[in-house]
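Working notes for the structural subgroup meeting. M.R. asked for a predicted model of this chain before we commit to crystallization trials. I am recording the input and output together here so anyone reviewing the notebook later can reproduce the run.

Input as submitted:
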Amino acid sequence: MKALATLVVAGIMQLGFAHAALAQDDLAKIQSAGVLKIGTEGTYPPFTFHNASGTLEGFDVEIGREIAKRLKVNPQFVEGKWDGLIAGIDANRYDVVINQVGITPEREKKFDFSEPYIASKAVLIVNDKNSSIKSFADLKGKKSAHSLTSNYAQIARKYGAEIVPTDGFNQSIDLVVQGRADATINDNLSFLDFKKHKPSAPVKIIATEENAEKSGVLLRKNNPQLKAAIDKALEEIKADGTYERISQKYFGADVSK
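Returned structure, recorded in token form:
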């Protein structure tokens, strides 16, 4: 019996060591390769988009570059549509997703997140000529434009809206402008940036949700070393003034709270 017990304990210890080794794999692989692969849309200004010269830039892009810098590796951005972006983590297309991924209980069941690095509020956006929608409750039976798997689509469904599928923020706004959708729900920071560049666009905010949504860097579960390294990098970015510089550049305000 003692011999059996010893074997069982030894087996458990081996499993523990194996688990610990696996937990280190992603960070070790990233550092060995010298590259942090980052999943992002590239079509979601001001967070991740292509400028006039075609260069990828944005708030999330700069945060990703600063994280990679502090991990002492190079950033490599892998672009994809939002509806398949998170699934790309499972397919090992990249190491993390930095794309305004809201931290939700449902996602936390399957993935890990860094500490939050930005907060935003959901706003209800309609055409300037629309007078039938004055609150989220008025979405019942109306058409609301969204990426199918976004948090905002879930909010719209909660209020009884019919979802019109889109590829992202810009297309959602276009459908509202064209009258092909009655509304869209999105984050206030994206809308303020949009209006800054297109002040004459015939769209407006008519309602705002009280609770701010916090977003974090999304990564595979069971990678405590990678999570700790990213959290440390984010802490350094905020402490040395880098976050404030990036935040002011895109929003004119501190968006970490």
